[in-house]
Amino acid sequence: MSRWVACAAIVLGLVSGPLAHAGEQENVSKAREIALSAADDLDAKRFAEALEKVTQAEALYHAPTHLLMRAEALEGLGRLAEALETYERLAAEPLGPTSPPAFRKAREEGSKRERALLARVPSLLVVVTGAATEDVKATVDDKPLALGTGMATRFDPGKHVLRVEASGFSPVERTIELDERGGVIKVPVHLEVASAWPVRDEKVDVIAPKPAPSGRTLFVPAMAAFGVGAASLVAGAVTGVMSLGRVGELEELCTSEGRCPPSAQGHIDEAGTLGNVSTAMFVVGGAAAAAGVVLLVMGKPKGPPAVGHVEVVPWAGPLSAGIRGTF
To answer: Where, by residue number, does the polypeptide cross the bilayer (predicted)?
Structure first.
């Protein structure tokens, strides 16, 4: 018979005797059967099955031997932090003078295993700066981690993911490798203020650009340009005729050699002035007419690209003016 089967049989046999109340007999009998099966699993190193069964037995009837069996199953599964916690519970188990010797032996065995396991279980202490502790949330492997207590937390050896975050700060995430040895690993974490807040996905209204002016819109300024051009050309023609009239009068006052008496100086000045005004009016009229043509061309509805070259050039002379173009 294995040590676990013998231990379970002795302890449960004692409890099922005069120490147990009549109402506990049924639970004790069930706990005995389950514990004996769990003991076989422990001897065969079927730790998962043993853990499940001994947990059921402990729920039916509390016994220090159940805690010892549970801790050994957890240790065999590599869940060292839980195993150490269970050994500590067993070492602190209160026993009276009439407690079975097997209970005392289980407590002594638990104390020995606790001291040995302390050298294998690492502890983690996370110290956060940069943000108020009450505003910080920390997790290890997605499980909450208490901060600000000054107490280290035990973890199983191996890799663990630490995440620290607070509102308004950039989160910090690290992968920590814990060796299978005792002691406290201190991990300092400094939170930085977030440089930019996340942008929510919101609907954006797109404003369509206004359509280009239509040909009808440019028709009015084109007609106005033609009007200015026509008026300027008429004014140029009138002042040109007046300038020619003064030139005819000078021909009567002056000799054939071009000598004029002093009294003809006013006619000379007036003829020059009228000539200059006529020339300016023809230039203005030609430019206005050209602008009108350009506005009409631009105002036409858009169609296929035109082939060729369009050129409009105003021209003016002493007695006439106009525009010429190449299409």
So the answer is: 280-298
